[in-house]
Amino acid sequence: MSNLVKEEVRNNVLWLTLARPEKKNALTSDMYAALSAALQAADRDGKIAAVVLTGEGDSFTAGNDLHDFLAIEDLDDSAPPFEFLYTLSRLSVPLVAGVNGLAIGIGTTILLHCDLVYASTDAVFALPFINLGLVPEAASSLLLPQQCGHLRASELLLLGENFDASAALAYGLVNKVVAPNELNNTLEQVAQALASKPHGGLRAAKKLIKQPAEPVADRIEREAKIFARALSSDAARKAIAERLNRKK
Length: 248
Description:
Elements: E1 5-10, E2 13-18, H1 29-44, E3 50-55, H2 66-70, H3 80-90, E4 95-99, E5 102-104, H4 106-109, E6 116-120, E7 124-126, H5 140-148, H6 150-159, E8 163-164, H7 165-170, E9 176-178, H8 183-195, H9 199-210, H10 216-231, H11 234-247
Parallel strand pairs: 2-3, 3-4, 4-6, 5-7, 6-9
Antiparallel strand pairs: 1-2, 7-8
Helix pairs in contact: 1-3, 5-6, 9-10
């Protein structure tokens, strides 16, 4: 694990903190590699209920460290930034983001792969790829129109202007906006709530939510098969028994 990415497990939740505050947590290849390794390990560990991603200091992340990014000799699918993106796309464990300050470039597109996102009122978002002569990444050209609609996605990707937390909330990019001093408490509450759920159920539900569009009947069939397996699990039987006992 890079010393620029802090890792801590609390109550079956993995907390990952980008720890390069003097550079606004701009991401390097080593940081991408560390994030990929941590997320892959969490996915393999059935005891992990969720992952929470935050940034140290006054920013979530200012995006890629451009000097480091330009120094990558072979920018192909195996390069650390792209390995990280593939890891994100395949992640089965729920991913929660806490956004404070700057969330630029990958700092915003990463949120499209998160399952729950909470931002402080001082958060600033931007997708400035067009201003650098670049194109959208992290599947944002697909996911952003799905999440915000074609017109809003075009505005964000073709103009590349900054937008604030209230706009991100209106666009459906975050679940809730809180005061800066409330962000950590909000994340703790969400982490505890997720940790209290059956972990297998969380992952199965996430997989269903992330499935591509399909006919309604096909989705009912898919859900029915997974539901039947879940119903026979020890976790479900225990939870149902506890609920019935409470009713008595």
